[in-house]
Amino acid sequence: MSRTPDGERRPDPADRRAKLICPTERGLLQMEAAASIMRTIEERHAKALGGREYAAFKAALQRVADLQAEAQHDDQSPGRRQGD
Questions:
Q1: Stated pTM of the model
Q2: Distance, CA of 53 to CA of 21 (rounded, Å)
């Protein structure tokens, strides 16, 4: 088993070939802290814009991220040449 302060690799009991990346206690605490920071930021922006406008902003931003992910996937498709 390989370990860092924030996570560790463990064998996947369902698939001997695979490894699972599992957070350590420190990693879980960091994830909770990050989630708390994100909540604070989102609450501040929602208050500034208003709930409805902020929800529309988040929906639009998610759509842009999804379109970008699709474009990157298309760019990496087998048989696709550079510049196509």
A1: 0.64
A2: 37
